[in-house]
Design brief:
Shape: globular
Radius of gyration: 19 Å
Number of helices: 11
Oligomer: single chain
Strand content: under 5%
Order of helices and strands: HHHHEEHHHHHHH
Mean pLDDT: 76
Structural class: mainly alpha
Strand order of the largest sheet: 1-2
Number of strands: 2
């Protein structure tokens, strides 16, 4: 399921405006919480619903300025955008993006089940790598032209792969210890960090809506830490 979620997300990025594809992908914590309630009978407390809603509202405020825009990087490195009419939106790509969110939600539940069934969450992450790596190689050879990366690109791929592995390992450990809704809500912090990095290091001009969206995500994540299991029981 995790591999299908990743591949459908990559497809949606190629066919949809970047902001739309990101919004579909980052709705995965919400679908994961819904599936966890159905599969594991996890109770969604009012705090959990409020946290997820607050985080997703922050996403809408951050990406709303380019929600109906499609763009890419120009030769000078600047982001150029063009209006996208309803007729040009690929409805099949929207369906694929929605499936990516659903697959991701199911994969969170499967990771939680696998991590809770074993003492070490690394087993679940390694199982995903053992399946996804050969499948990605087959899809690359069948559907794409194989391009041998240069040394710099190979080094970046190794670093990114290692960091992704560590992130997935911590995620599996979090799902092993805590409810799906709380664990996945923490994932929204990556949007906050990416926006802050863009403002600080890339010289991106902060807008009012983006700052408000970042603050909503930060408040939601901090509230998740504060209203832990002990606070909920009280």
């Amino acid at each position: 399921m995790g591999y299908l979620s990743l591949m459908t997300f990559v497809y949606s990025i190629q066919r949809l405006p970047l902001s739309d594809a990101i919004l579909f992908n980052l709705s995965t914590p919400i679908t994961g919480s819904i599936f966890a309630q159905v599969i594991f009978h996890e109770k969604l407390a009012l705090v959990d619903i409020g946290g997820l809603s607050c985080s997703f509202l922050g996403l809408l405020l951050i990406f709303r300025p380019i929600f109906f825009l499609q763009g890419g990087l120009s030769e000078g490195g600047e982001y150029s955008m063009a209006l996208v009419s309803k007729e040009t939106v690929d409805k099949y790509a929207v369906l694929v993006a929605l499936l990516s969110s659903l697959y991701g939600g199911v994969s969170y539940c499967l990771v939680r089940a696998g991590a809770k069934a074993s003492e070490q969450p690394m087993a679940t992450v390694l199982a995903f790598a053992l399946f996804a790596s050969p499948a990605a190689l087959v899809c690359t050879l069948v559907f794409e032209d194989f391009v041998l990366p240069d040394m710099q690109t190979l080094l970046i791929m190794i670093i990114v792969g290692f960091l992704a592995f560590v992130a997935e390992l911590f995620l599996a450990r979090g799902l092993q210890l805590e409810k799906t809704s709380k664990t996945t809500n923490i994932l929204f912090i990556e949007v906050f960090l990416s926006q802050m990095s863009g403002f600080t290091f890339l010289g991106q001009a902060p807008s009012f809506l983006r700052l408000v969206g970042c603050m909503l995500i930060l408040v939601s994540v901090l509230s998740t830490f504060y209203f832990g299991p002990e606070k909920v029981l009280e």
